[in-house]
Amino acid sequence: MLEIRSRLQGRAAAQARLELPFELRQKSRLHTRLSNGEETAVLLPRGEILRGGDLLAASDGRVVEVVATPEKLLHIESDELARVAYHLGNRHVPVQLAPGFLRIAEDHVLEELARKLGARVSHVEAPFEPEAGLEAAVEAGIVSDAASAERWIGDVLELSVARIELAVLRQQMVEPSQALNDFFLASRESAELRAETLQMGHSLAKLLADLGVEVPIEQPALPTAFACAARAWHIAERDALVAYLWSWLENQVMAAIKALPLGQTAGQKILLALGARLDAIAGKEAEWSNFAPGLAFLSARHETQYSRLFRS
Question: How far apart are the first and last CA of the chain?
Fold first, then answer.
């Protein structure tokens, strides 16, 4: 029987495919089959979670690519998407977050809940890659309560997001640049941080295309796609920057509510406290910097975290 015991770093041509849904990609010990029907044993170190696009080393020397198979999901859109996500997160279910929509595994109870909250719900089949943010900091004990969650999120906001993502967004709103987009991708300090911005940028670019807005950049990162939308709809720079920061902040707080967990009131208090900083941050052109070693270190650790639910 073919065995898979390790991951491959970097790029390589795949000679085989391992197609799995998210539920099975969370298991480090698995008896399964490759897409060609070949019987295979996955024997990865404990805590390894497979993601679409991961490359694995097989016992016969072949490179095996992990493929996230389409699953039956609920595609949720709402004018109050944060409110819907908040309630879903409070029920401790994996949630895939993307600009303009959420996705969760099919569940008739949660579907009814989302509809009662005024959401538009449809059924789709697509790869499922839950997103979020704070798990590694929680696992390491750095974030343990509402106060430490607010401190962590606030530090990342001001020392990382404001100094690199916001700076790139501001510049891309003047004139979208492939070189600047590629620079931002190169600045991502872990594989999952890069994958996160690429997936969210791709999702937003696809939505914008349906709305008649072109994103003339290959492999657009999220700030680039967001900038193209702001340019097309003539959104004032400061308003666009604050909106970008607010969407990032909401995602972080939703992740903290689920990962710790925190109560709804505690989450709202964090949003109020940090939300009050956003206008001032958007109005100040900080010196460009991507020096956030704690974030980079924890992101790298998070890629193999045993309790991991989210991609980043």
Answer: 33
208 and 151 co-located in one domain:
yes
Give how many domains the chain has, as a whole number.
3
179 with 51, same domain: the answer is: no
Same domain, 99 and 10: no
- 296 in the same domain as 199: yes
The CA dihedral of 237, 194, 29, 308, to the nearest 10 degrees, is: -40
Where does 158-292 have alpha helices with state H?
Answer: 166-174, 178-187, 191-210, 222-232, 237-259, 264-275, 278-282
Q: Strand, coil or helix: what is 65? A: strand
* Residue that terminates a domain, selected from 103, 126, 149: 126
Q: By the 8 A CB rule, do 3 and 41 touch?
A: yes
**pTM for this predicted structure:** 0.57
86: tokens are: 């908040």
DSSP assignment of 253-306 equals HHHHHHHTT--HHHHHHHHHHHHTTHHHHHTS-PPP----HHHHHHHHHHTT-T
pLDDT tens, residue by residue, 212-258? 999 999 999 999 999 999 999 999 999 999 999 999 999 888 888 87
CA–CA dist 234, 100 (Å, integer)? 19
Domain that holds residue 11: 2-68
